[in-house]
Amino acid sequence: MKTILALLLALAISPVSTALADAPVASQELLWASDGEANVPYVFHDPAHESQMTGFEYELVNEIAARLHRKAKFIQNDWDGLIPGLSRGLYGMVLDGIEMTPEHKAAVLFSRPYYVTSERIIVRNDQNGLDTMEALKGHTVGTIKDTTAERMLRRQGGSNVRSYEEETNAFSDLRNGRLDAILLDAPIALYYGSISPDMKLVGEPIGSMEYGIAFSPENRELRDQVDAALGEIIKDGTLHRILARWNLWTPLMANYTGDTSQPDIAPTEWDRYRQAMANTTGSGWYVLARRYVSFLPLIGQAALMTLAVSALAMILAVALGLLLALSRHYGAAPLRFVAGVYVEVVRGTPLLIQVLFIFYGLPAFGIRLSPFMAGVLSLGLNYAAYEAENYRAGLLSVPRGQMEAAVALNMTHWQALRLVIVPQAFRTVVPVMTNDFISLLKDSSLVSVITLTELSQTYVRLSSTYYDYFGTGIMVGLAYLLLGLPFVRLARMAERRLGRGFSGTGHH
User: Fold this and answer.
1) Does residue 505 belong to any structural domain of this protein?
2) Which of 89, 217, 227, 491 is the most exposed place for a label (fewest CB within 10 A)?
3) 70 Rama class: left (phi>0) / alpha (psi -120 to 50) / beta
4) Residue 51 in 3-state DSSP?
């Protein structure tokens, strides 16, 4: 047990768990963030080497950092958390194909554009005629939420528009016949649609939009430094070379930069990505086995993080839950009121809202927690409310005479609670505690929204990279199952050792 607790505490204070602690953005490291879970070709995990990040934005940031004589440090965050994390000071800038719309410009500072692109239509190979915006009317069309493509479709009207969080889900629905077409930014369309044998890009590029690097409005100095470096990268042709290697240099970029040169640059990264996908997306038993074996280290690391967060949160929940139960059952009126309000408020609000509030809301009051600590605290505080009700029911199940007998033996009220009542109540709630811990293990998936890489986030990354939701889902599901089974066995052993709880009811 001491070894397990030591491991959990080590994980809690390890560099992995504290990578997002509030380091100043003015340090030698250039902290930047993106959502690299399913973000080809911007920032993503290399299919050939899952532990390595790559992408044209990833290369661009490294080049910018070199010009500023700093070391770039990538921080993973979900799309919805990128700008809140920027405002919280977790990192200095964000690159994630963020469109420089008037709404976005009102919220953050932007660099000069680093990429100009358009929208493209993707359909299945057996479809024809859906190659213009007008032709999409009357059809079910998928896109990514809060993008120029979505606004174009809704402004035109006439289409059944389905908006997605992840582009991989849209392509899956197109492949399965749930969508008739997809409208997406050209880089996404190229890297997801054109390499799939059952899909094709159709029609001409539609419209245009600009991507910019986002900064907090208070971080104008860093914006100006990065903007100057970006200007040099555009002027000396470095940006042209990066984009050409990713097969992303287009006439739109030539017009924007004024760079009409045609250097002989092979699309090496584009070819490497296609080859990596061809090597990993086969269906033969050998290919599948090799792929799944390569997943084991990543799933193992994610499982350890899930276990660490869940175990420490459960310890907090048990301790605080017992305190709340005793307060509601034996405390003075003000204490009973406060404990009751806490239980009802926590049980009446969604856990996801509590996670986001603790991580992004508390800094407004000067309380800044690392993602690991915020995850443990939010899960622990939430489950404490449920544990409090379980323990209160356990206290009520202890016969009234037990307290009277303890007092008659000259015990103080506190001694009677500690030595007689609470141990008997604990016996009756052991099975419920086990169920709650298993539920907490699964609910720990919600901490992925505050950048912790646990099992659910690992599943999203692997399944979206290889378009394999079935096999990867089974592996991650088994990991959750294996984490929970030992605690079920421990609970049964504890039940047998402690014996059956006492029956009867009463109030002490």
Assistant:
1) no
2) 217
3) beta
4) strand
Provide the token pair at 225. 């430094």
Query: How many residues comprise the chain?
Result: 508
Give pLDDT, residue 202: 95
Assigned domain for 155 exists: yes
pTM given for the model? 0.71
Domain boundary among 263, 282, 301: 282
Q: Which domain holds residue 357?
A: 289-499
The rounded Cα 455 to chain-centroid distance in angstroms is 10
pLDDT at 242: 97
pLDDT tens, position by position, 125-173: 989 999 999 999 999 999 998 899 999 999 999 999 999 988 888 998 9
- DSSP class per residue in 154-182: HHH-SSEEEEESSHHHHHHHHHTTS-SEE
Which residues have CB under 8 Å from 292's CB, separation 6+? Answer: 471, 475
Residues 120/258, Cβ–Cβ less than 8 Å: no
Residue 116: what are its φ and ψ, rounded to 5°? -120, 130
CA 385 from centroid of its chain's CA atoms: 25
**Bridge partners of residue 76, in order along the sequence:** 34
* 3-state SS assignment for residue 440: helix
Residue 5 lies in a domain: no
254 domain residue, yes or no: yes
**Residue 310 — left, alpha, or beta (φ > 0 → left; ψ -120 to 50 → alpha)?**
alpha
The total of structural domains in the chain comes to: 3
Taking the C-alpha atoms of residue 288 and residue 94, their distance in angstroms, rounded to an integer, is: 35
Last residue of a domain, one of 168, 187, 209: 209
**183 and 230 share a domain?**
no
Give the integer Cα–Cα distance in Å for 134 and 154. Answer: 12
Give residue for tokens 């493509």.
Answer: 149
- Characterise 92 by phi-psi region: left (phi > 0), alpha (psi -120 to 50), beta (else): alpha
- Which of these, 206, 199, 60, lies nearest to 119 by C-alpha position? 206
Could you tell me if 34 and 155 lie in one domain?
no
Do residue 359 and residue 475 come from a single domain? yes
Tell me, yes or no, whether 369 and 238 share the same domain.
no
Say whether 142 sits in a helix, a strand or coil.
strand
For the stretch 134-156, what's the b/e string if a residue is b when 16 or more beta carbons lie within 10 angstroms of its beta carbon?
A: eebeebbbbbbebbbbbebbeee
Residue pLDDT, tens place only, 355-374 = 989 988 888 788 888 889 99
Look at the block and give the residue holding tokens 């090496």: 268
Residue 234 reports pLDDT greater than 90: yes
Residue 128 has phi, psi (to 5 degrees) of -140, 155
If asked whether residues 374 and 443 sit together in one domain, one would say yes
Helices and strands: H and E segment counts in the chain? 20, 12
